[in-house]
Design brief:
Blueprint lengths: L1 H18 L7 H6 L4 E2 L8 E4 L3 E5 L8 H7 L5 E3 L3 E2 L13 E5 L5 E5 L5 H8 L2 E2 L4 E6 L13 E8 L4 E8 L2 E9 L5 E7 L1 H4 L3 E6 L3 E2 L9 E2 L7 E4 L8 E7 L2 E7 L4 E4 L2 E4 L7 E10 L11 H18 L2 E3 L8 H18 L20 E2 L3 H10 L3 H13 L1 H10 L10 E2 L19 H12 L3 H20 L1 E4 L4 E4 L19 H20 L6 H9 L5 E2 L2 E2 L36 H14 L10 H11 L3 H9 L38 H16 L20 E3 L6
Antiparallel strand pairs: 1-10, 2-3, 3-4, 5-8, 6-7, 9-14, 10-11, 11-12, 12-13, 13-22, 14-21, 15-16, 17-18, 18-19, 19-22, 20-21, 23-30, 24-25, 26-27, 28-29
Helix pairs in contact: 7-18, 8-9, 8-11, 8-18, 9-11, 11-12, 12-13, 13-14, 16-17, 16-18
């Protein structure tokens, strides 16, 4: 019997080698070997815990002790939730139409678009509502000499983000005395658990400071500091005896109200400042703190730290185990580890910051950008990867918000003389458009069709069709009504006015941009497939548009950005920002409107002649890599994905900050050390989608791992990854 059992065990252990089968990926080993480990204070590497719609950024202490230092020199540490919004009073009753500017449409009639952002109404409507920061938790050390606690006081730090469990563990010394801090987020509520261990607690020399800002500094659009001015203009009040054994703090600023519940007593220290202290005996200070909207929460304590740790461990084990994975272990290529690490860290960051009840801003839940507004043209980069990597539920959570805003999208379409549902570009929680160039951007419109199609590809069922038919069909109906037929040329055209993906052209004259034309044709074709799946006839108008839509503009044998201004390859000033002419064969699968040889020449021209230094974004690199991959240029695809170029530098915590969102010119002042856009999650999301394309391929591609070089230096194992159209 012993020999028989031993034989069975040996077969099980060595079956992969005997059979030639590929062994399953050890998910925990894959994830854990990329745990960020910091052994110094690194302002570019704050670590984050969160649950998708709420997140807590931590500095080297595991709390937010040196938040001002991190904001000034690196990436901020804040506490943010997608339900927390604030609006300033509007005594002038500004409304969107107050910012209208008249534009002449192709049929000759004039229509007002809310583009005057510099007007008083435009300024107020862009800034309101804005996201509202929650409390700051900081470690306080009462030093013998009475001096301030500064970053230089931290000795021998070692901080680890345990990705498999979603826990930050921080260890350091203060004047030779050890301090250990554990930080974790509850996956089911906006609750942070903190456990601090040190002799300094029992000695009364360490405590925690909880402080509430007035908000963000609204004079700064991107990565603003917290506003600690005018303490009399908001309220932070302890409600006595509301939570037995704990503390209830009510927050009130204008019409914004939220509550904070602590699992331990807290003491009032100063306006908007509270202290959490030990009992004078124990070396451990442990508490949980929950943030929630409204001022009358249920009078119950938040879950304890041990319970949160257990829930977090179960949550993240499920996330990593059930989603897709790619393992490059065994590769000899020097880029393999870097690629694998960026995949794991990007997956974590997107899961903790980009799946709340309100779709994310471009900086996720790290800091504020564009007043916290959601930019709907980024929703593809933000969420397509969720479906491609096996997490449909996180994509669906974002789409639920769009479904709930269908009435607003229908009203916007009707107001523009369009049919169906027109999606606004820069929006707060209510879905109202923001003034500026935003109303003229159109490439956000087809995203709903693409994202719903990804869900259907993973779950091709009547339930999926029924659940998303309105998003698809009403979005498509609006697409069809946004083109106009030109009798002279016998073709359908887009614009003017419009602001294309490459945001450098005059919207009043822009006509027939390359990517938008291709996206219209592809999305209407997919919408026709949905009609057929639903048992409906094809829409004759849509088929007419697909057949007669203008071709992609070409000059000198290469695709250009615009038919109305085809100077991409003659004018250096037309070669910065997003090279959108590559997107029809990368993000999109190409089709009868895309010539492969022309696209290859276009890619060569972008790589050689594009102005990469003036202004380029973190999602451009993966986008261009997708085009290279579809063209079979695997070495170029990997190089582009991992290139150390402007706005494509990823730090130890996984973030990819961006410089100015304005073009850099010779007259521009030198960039400050502060990152203007300190966290830019579209870069991470685009990266994950590009990897999915390169590893899992696309429709009609028979090559295994078609975007990875076949030079013998790469060993690839992939599980659960889905291909793109």
């Amino acid at each position: 019997m012993f020999r028989q059992n031993a034989l069975v065990l040996a077969i099980l252990l060595f079956w992969p080698q005997i059979s030639g089968a590929v062994p399953r990926i050890d998910r925990e080993a894959l994830v854990s070997r990329h745990n960020p480990v910091l052994q110094k204070l690194d302002v570019d590497a704050p670590l984050t815990v969160g649950n998708g719609g709420f997140a807590f950024g931590a500095d080297i202490t595991g709390l937010q002790t040196f938040a001002a230092h991190y904001h000034r020199y690196g990436i901020p540490v804040e506490t943010l939730s997608r339900w927390a919004w604030h609006s300033q009073p509007n005594p002038n009753n500004y409304k969107l139409s107050d910012t209208n500017q008249d534009y002449k449409l192709p049929d000759g009639h004039v229509l007002g678009f809310p583009t005057r952002q510099a007007s008083p109404a435009g300024d107020w409507l862009r800034k309101n509502p804005h996201n509202h920061p929650l409390g700051r938790l900081a470690l306080e050390w009462i030093k013998t000499d009475g001096s301030a606690f500064v970053p230089e006081d931290i000795q021998d730090p070692e901080q680890t983000l345990d990705l498999w469990r979603g826990v930050i563990r921080s260890r350091f010394k203060l004047s030779g005395t050890g301090v250990s801090v554990t930080t974790v987020c509850d996956p089911d509520s906006d609750t942070i658990g903190v456990r601090i261990e040190s002799r300094l607690i029992a000695q009364g020399k360490i405590r925690v400071r909880l402080a509430f800002p007035r908000g963000h500094d609204l004079t700064v659009k991107n990565t603003p500091a917290l506003d600690w001015s005018n303490p009399e203009s908001h309220e932070s009040a302890i409600i006595k005896n509301a939570i037995p054994g704990g503390t209830l703090i009510r927050r009130h600023i204008d019409e914004t109200r939220y509550s904070v519940i602590l699992s331990v007593p807290a003491l009032y220290s100063a306006p908007h400042v509270f202290s959490i202290t030990g009992n004078g005996e124990s070396r451990i200070l442990e508490f949980s703190i929950r943030f929630l909207p409204g001022e009358k929460p249920r009078p119950e304590l938040p879950p304890g730290v041990s319970k949160i740790l257990a829930k977090s461990a179960a949550h993240w084990k499920k996330f990593w185990s059930e989603g897709a994975a790619v393992d490059f272990s065994g590769s000899t290529n020097l880029l393999a580890h870097k690629l694998e690490e960026r995949i794991v860290l990007s997956q974590y960051l997107m899961a903790v910051q980009m799946a709340g009840d309100m779709p994310p801003q471009e900086s996720g839940l790290t800091c504020s950008t564009w007043y916290g507004k959601h930019h709907t043209e980024m929703i593809w980069w933000h969420t397509a990867h969720f479906s491609l990597w096996g997490h449909d539920e996180l994509l669906e959570k974002n789409l639920q918000w769009y479904q709930a805003r269908l009435p607003a999208a229908r009203a916007l379409a009707a107001g523009r003389g369009l049919r169906g549902a027109r999606w606004a570009k820069m929006v707060g929680p209510e879905g109202r458009e923001s003034p500026g160039g935003n109303p003229l951007i159109i490439w956000n419109q087809p995203h709903m069709i693409y994202l719903c199609e990804l869900l259907y590809r993973s779950r091709p069922s009547p339930a999926t069709l029924a659940g998303y038919r309105e998003l698809v069909l009403e979005t498509a109906e609006c697409l069809a009504s946004m083109v106009h037929f030109d009798e002279a040329s016998g073709r359908y055209m887009l614009g003017p006015p419009l602001w294309i993906v490459q945001e450098i052209y005059d919207p009043e004259t822009s006509r027939n941009p390359a990517f938008e034309l291709s996206y219209w044709r592809w999305a209407l074709g997919v919408a026709q497939q949905w009609r057929e799946r639903l048992g409906m006839p094809r829409d004759k108008k849509w088929d007419d548009i697909i057949a007669l839509l203008s071709p992609l503009p070409v000059a000198d044998g290469k695709y250009v950005a615009l038919e109305s201004r085809p100077d991409t390859w003659q004018n250096i000033n037309s070669r910065h920002d997003h090279p959108e002419m590559l997107m029809p064969f990368g993000l999109l699968p190409g089709g009868p409107d895309v010539d492969r040889a022309t696209m290859a020449r276009t890619l060569d021209a972008v790589l050689k002649e594009w102005d990469w230094e003036t202004k380029i974004w973190g999602w451009d690199y993966p986008m261009i890599a997708m085009t290279a991959a579809r063209l079979g240029r695997t070495e170029q695809a990997v190089e582009l994905l991992l290139r150390d170029g402007p706005n494509n530098r990823y730090f130890a915590g996984g973030h990819c900050p961006q410089g100015s969102d304005q073009a850099i010119t010779q007259k521009s002042p030198p960039r400050a050390r502060r990152h203007e856009i300190a966290a830019y999650l579209p870069a991470n999301g685009a990266f994950l989608s590009a990897v999915a394309l390169m590893v899992a391929g696309w429709d009609g591609c028979a090559d295994q791992h078609p975007g990875i070089p076949k030079d013998g230096t790469w060993k690839v194992r992939a599980e659960g990854l889905r291909s793109l159209p």
